[in-house]
Amino acid sequence: MNDITLLTRDGASLDVGCPPGETVLAAAEAAGLFLPSMCHEGSCGLCRAEITAGEYDAGGRTGETITRDVLLCQCRPTSDMTVALPYAEAAILRHRAPTREAVIERIAPAGASAVSLGLRLRPDAERGEAADFVPGQYMEVAIPGTDIRRAYSLANLPNWDGRLEFLIRLVPGGAFSTWLGTVAKPGDALSLRGPLGRFVLDEASPRPRCLVGGGCGLAPLLAMLRHLAEFQDTQETHLIFGANREDELFATAEIEALAAQLPGLTVTTAIWHPQAAWRGFAGTAAEALDRLLASAAGAPDIYVCGPPRLVEAVIATARRHGVPEAQILAEHVQLR
């Protein structure tokens, strides 16, 4: 039995015993610690962490005692080990995320390459009809009759009616995209797991906020803004919404309405490849953030969600401007 020490971003230390041949993720779950994860097969990347001490085997690749990133669902310790987790202790569940059943109510276009998927939860003996989550969290959605699951952020607010809204990009050849674009229809039943995720607002922070979303990465940011509007928040907040082309934009009327409700909200729409008539910001969301940070009086809290390249570019931009790591929170959009 190897002793595994899990160190969280906020300084908590959790000890787990790991039998020979077992993964860190499975050992943690056996101990009642459910770390952020989804596929358990090394493809989604949600269980990535850093090994700071110890040795391991990951699919035949042996790690030496140096600092390195691993997927905990693939990491089998061969010695005692210390793992630095990139999130706070609050992100670790002490129970399995609930599974719910839902029915499709609406599938509508959202720009040129995405859809808005509206679901309603079926009543649950324990939870009733309520959709209970924190704005910014996501749900795992399973294709009926398959083991294929995808994680999508919620765009709406918690409610007693069981309503859920997702913004999903349709990727040619993608498993979920193909099902959603060619098979799914109102009335179809879906299985959901969640809510999950640590991509939520730090409402205790006094610093300005900058929300950066690319494409369907706008979904959790919309939920956050709707939450702020519901509570009439006055804190300085910037939204940067990036798209490749103008026809990929969506929710523009909703964003305008939120800006009218939130006096502290400013909005930048960034188009990477605009038409000649475009009068907004021409460039990527990361470039729009670069311009914003260049004139900022201090480092804001940054929340970014979108495709991996956008997220990486935004994080690099924030670091270049000296934004502390603890003030950068990122979520990646799943594109399959």
A few lines on this structure:
This protein is of the alpha/beta class.
Domain module tally: 3
Shape: globular
CATH topology of the largest domain: Rossmann fold
* Strand order, largest beta sheet: 12-11-14-9-10-13
Low-confidence stretches: 63-67
User: What is the CATH first-level class name of the largest domain?
Assistant: Alpha Beta
Mean pLDDT: 89
* CATH-level-4 superfamily name of the largest domain: Nucleotide-binding domain of ferredoxin-NADP reductase (FNR) module
Distance between the termini: 38 Å
The CATH architecture category of the largest domain equals 3-Layer(aba) Sandwich
The main β sheet shows up as: 6 strands, antiparallel
β-strand percent reads 25-35%
Order of helices and strands: EEHEEEEEEEEEEEHEEHEHEEHEHE
What does this entry look like structurally?
This protein is of the alpha/beta class. It has helices spanning 24-30, 175-182, 218-230, 252-261, 285-294, 308-320; strands at residues 2-7, 13-18, 48-53, 56-58, 61-63, 68-71, 76-77, 81-84, 99-109, 114-121, 138-142, 149-153, 163-169, 189-196, 209-214, 237-243, 265-271, 281-282, 301-306, 328-332. The strands form four sheets. A six-stranded antiparallel beta sheet has the order 12-11-14-9-10-13. The chain has a six-stranded parallel beta sheet with strand order 18-17-16-15-19-20, with helices on both faces. Strands 2-1-8-3-6 form a five-stranded mixed beta sheet, covered by helices on one side. α5 (285-294) packs parallel to α6. The longest helix has 13 residues, at 218-230. Residues 63-67 have low confidence and may be disordered.
